[in-house]
Amino acid sequence: MPRTRPRIPPDDDLSWAGDEPRPPAHRWVFATTVAFLGVAAVLRSLLAFEGEQRILVLALLAVWFVLVLAEPFAARAWPPSFVAYLTAQGAVVLLLLTQSDSSDFFAVLLAVPVMQAAERWQPRAVWVLIAVFAGLTGVGLIEEYGGSSTVSLVAIYAAANVFFAAYALAARRAVEVRTRNEALAADLRQANQRLTESSERAQRLGAARERQRLARDLHDSVTQTLFSMTLTARSALLLLQREPREVPAQLDQIDHLAHSALEEMTALAAEPPASAPGGGRLAGALGRHCTERKLRDGLAVSLEVDGDEPLPAKQEAALLRIAQEGLNNVVKHAGVEEAAVRLRLRRPYRLEVEDDGSGFDPAERAGSGLGLTGMAERAAEIGWRLTVTSRPGGGTRVVAEAGETGETDGEGGTDGD
Predict the structure, then answer these.
(1) In the chain, what percentage of residues exceed pLDDT 90?
(2) Do residues 46 and 54 lie in contact, with contact meaning Cβ atoms separated by under 8 Å?
(3) pLDDT of residue 6
(4) Mean pLDDT in the chain?
(5) Can you tell me the distance from the alpha carbon of 180 to that of 254, in angstroms, rounded to the nearest whole number?
(6) Cα–Cα distance measured from residue 397 to residue 400, given in angstroms and rounded to the nearest whole number
(7) Is the dihedral of CA 246, 248, 249, 254 positive or negative?
């Protein structure tokens, strides 16, 4: 949905021009000024003129009033008409100034078009207009008053025009500032709204990532322990009829697995995970895990470690989880009792989990569960690249290498050393 915002007039814009009305406060002051000057001019005409000259002066004042009232409508219909309006006002006032030696007062009527010009033009143009009107006033008064008196009168009326122009310019700038502030306030409200929406999205994303992390951790640790408990329980049921003497050993194994599952759940609840290695302890953590797989699942895992350079704790934790899930897949799917884990702790850093089991087609397994996807995500999170090489009947090799993040590959991935 497109957003709307108040119009912000640039510095060279013509405020209140065209179809933009004057603000209420300025409209009231402008109307009062027009009424005051117009009524004063009419009263002065009634006192200073008689007969046909009075009628002529009042007619000219009526034209002045009509021009003032018609100007906003003419400006909306045809903006260039404002110059013609100023010309007509100047001509009307010039005719009024030439009526008698009591006509100098009519020069004050030029303050109204000066205010209107200040509403539309930049200050420099307004000052030029005041100068033109001052010259026009001098032309109208020079014959009646002579040089020195005319200069004094022109200076007085020019000062009045400057005062009225200054007010109009100040009012115009105040309106522009208010409009800008309203626009900035609207932008601020929209920015706050976008910030709130972004914060909510970030919270939802963080919650989703945390759920995903917990699901991966459960899949890599507790799920496998529960799977081992299920196999052991089934073995105990079979031995209950055939070899009852062996059942207590199976029950002890189930008890051991239950305690292991509880410890793993406790570790997952810790932050950072209590089972995560760090400070160069990855090799030791892998060694303990490989020993545990033999006791728990009967899987003999050979561990080869090349080098002793420590990795960041986050990388060591991710690599341990990748190794755990790789061995989980061996137990679940490979159908063998042996596997190999190779860890290279020198450049280029590398982790391999390999078995000679039944293998699979990576294209068919893509996206089928958390296993391969979870390993690839863990590798990507630490900036490593995960490659899975397998084929039916040809075993499986999972390789995690330090470097640019890559997608899980199928047949033809990177071989080991």
Answers:
(1) 33
(2) yes
(3) 43
(4) 80
(5) 74
(6) 10
(7) positive
Work out the burial of residue 92: count CB atoms within 10 Å of its CB; fewer than 13 is exposed, 13-18 middle, 19 or more buried: buried
269-278's contacts with Cβ under 8 Å and 24+ in sequence apart are 272/313, 272/317, 273/217, 273/317, 275/221, 275/320, 276/313, 276/316, 276/317, 276/320, 277/313, 277/316, 277/317, 277/320, 278/312, 278/313, 278/316, 278/317
* Residue with tokens 């310019």, as numbered in its chain: 169
- CA distances in angstroms from 411 to 15, 141, 325, listed in the order given: 72, 104, 20
266 CB burial (10 A radius; 0-12, 13-18, 19+):
exposed
Report residue 109 as tokens: 């009527």
CB atoms within 10 A of CB 330: 27
**Tokens found for residue 72:** 């906003």
Per-residue confidence (pLDDT) for residue 377, from 0 to 100: 85
pLDDT at 217 over 90: no
Quote the CA–CA distance of 80 and 62 in Å, as a whole number.
Answer: 23
Residues with Cβ within 8 Å of 160's Cβ and at least 6 positions away in sequence, in order, are 108, 111
pLDDT single digits (tens) 219-259: 666 666 777 778 778 887 887 777 888 778 778 777 777 77
Q: What backbone torsions phi and psi does residue 303 show, to the nearest 5 degrees?
A: -115, 125
pTM of the model: 0.47
Burial track 208-245 (b if 16+ CB lie within 10 A, e otherwise): eeeeebeebbbbbbbbbbeebbeebeebbeebeeeeee
Residues 322-364: tens digit of each pLDDT: 988 888 888 888 888 899 999 999 999 999 999 998 888 877 7
Residues found in the chain:
417
Task: Report pLDDT for 351.
Answer: 95
pLDDT at 276 over 70: no
